[in-house]
Amino acid sequence: MKGLNIVIAEDDAIIRMYLVQLLEGVGHKIVGTAATGKGVIEEVGDNKPDILLLDIGLKGDLDGIQTAIVVQEEFSTPLIFISGNSDRLRNEVKHTNIEPVATFVKPIDEQTLLSVLKDFSAEKNNSSE
């Protein structure tokens, strides 16, 4: 499996660091991280990742849902939503036109996340051949 270029958007530094270590440990390349919506938009614009892991509870002017809308409109970057609140995740995502690759409630199940990324990578590689 070819590793993916990933941007991680998470305002909790410990969770962000954990995700970086987990994903780099299996061969993915973290091309950017951000803790705010504006930072996410900059990282996605600058680095053109294959996929974005996005916490919907980002702090700052733009929360994760608002950030996702901008990212989808400007870059069409596939994304995975992450949230500590399953009700918010379900309710807010269904009111957008965004179709995430997957959604995860914290704590994230490592094996399921890695499996989703593996499937996404295989699908991406097959469609580019």
Count up the domains: 1
What's the total number of strands? Answer: 5
Radius of gyration, CA atoms, in whole angstroms = 13 Å
The largest pleated sheet is described as: 5 strands, parallel
The first-level CATH class is given as: Alpha Beta
Low-confidence stretches: none
CATH structural architecture = 3-Layer(aba) Sandwich
Globally, the shape reads globular
Strand % is: 15-25%
Mean pLDDT score: 92
* CATH homologous superfamily label: Response regulator
Task: Tell me the number of helical segments per DSSP (H or I, 4 or more residues long).
Answer: 5
The main sheet orders its strands as: 2-1-3-4-5
**Helix content estimate:** 40-55%
Structural class: alpha/beta
Return the string of H and E elements: EHEHEHEHEH
According to CATH, what is the topology?
Answer: Rossmann fold
**How far apart, in Å, are the first and last alpha carbons?**
14 Å
Architecture overview:
With 129 residues, the chain is α/β, with parallel strands linked by helices. The chain has a single domain, classed as 3-Layer(aba) Sandwich (Rossmann fold). Helix 3 (64-75) links the parallel strand 3 and strand 4. The chain is globular, with a radius of gyration of 13 Å. The chain contains five helices and five strands; from the N terminus they run E-H-E-H-E-H-E-H-E-H. The protein has helices at 13-25, 37-47, 64-75, 86-93, 110-127; strands at residues 5-9, 29-34, 51-55, 79-83, 102-105. Helix 2 (37-47) packs parallel to helix 3 (64-75). A five-stranded parallel β-sheet has the order 2-1-3-4-5, sandwiched between helices.
